[in-house]
Amino acid sequence: MKKIGITTTVPVEILIAAGYSPVDLNNIFIGSSDRERLVDTAEKAGFPQNCCTWIKGIYGVCLENSIDTVLCVTSGDCSNTVMLMEVLKLKGLNVISFAYPEEPDIGLMQKALKKLAGRLGTTLERATEIRGELERVRHLALEVDDLTWRDGVVSGLENHLSLVSTSDFGGDQSEYERRLQELVTQAKKREPYADNLLRLAYIGVPPVFPGDLYPFIERNGARVVFNEVQRQFAMPNPGRSLAEQYCNYTYPYSVFHRVDDILQQIRQRRIDGVIHYVQAFCHRGIGDIIFRNSIDLPILTLEGNNDFVLNQHLRTRVEAFIDMMKRRASSRSNVSEAGTRA
Hints:
The protein is of the alpha/beta class. It is built from 15 helices and eight strands.
């Protein structure tokens, strides 16, 4: 199957139905051992320093990995993608655009999906068949999520890596499914995490330093049991049709759709505090105002740029946040004990 690069989670069922193998350019970039050079490639081409690192990394990936066809999402994702698309055209790449409707309306989504299918030379009927074939592997990814928050036998990093890869199934659906099944089998044999660890939600786009962040949180007496956007990549609410599935996918639409999902998961997963990650120079960072007005829990906002490591400043902030929550939990416990004795 011919590779097609994607700039975010898209209706992969249509791409596969058209004979393409979707490749999430973000995952290739962040998984590279040479991320700095990929960013440098973009900056040498003229991308400004105050442009999002992810956009620059995607550009570098396209040029250095011989990806000649890219599907760019022009509405419902990053505002910089529109100009990235123009630059990729300038470089001779075959660029296809896809726009999520402004609102999660099934009729509008159906039209958008049909237009994309026609552009790629396939049909929604064939894409619906592919949707059925992907159901098993998505259920497996969501089982990993359940084993994280419900059973306490999967780490926050394992959860992140498993769910974030559902955007393109790692470029190889069979191998991805094999790895997931292996993780599920191993996890069910593990001893659960200690009950006294604080339970955190991670909201926002995936971080540029996942390999540092999640283990550092666990070393300090907490663990992430909810990865918001990564979980959405796995389509936790598939609905009855392809159009409904991508209407239930919260990320492309109003932040208030995300808030509803987050609040529900906070209650279900017994969350103690929230880490909101924002990428430097990203318009979505403004959404922090809405999250802080909607979520009645301690929130730590972390901003990442192009360090790719959890630097000492960020480490100190995470440590202080967890310490504050520990004192908060201890204070509540003391008040409860005093009330019981009285």
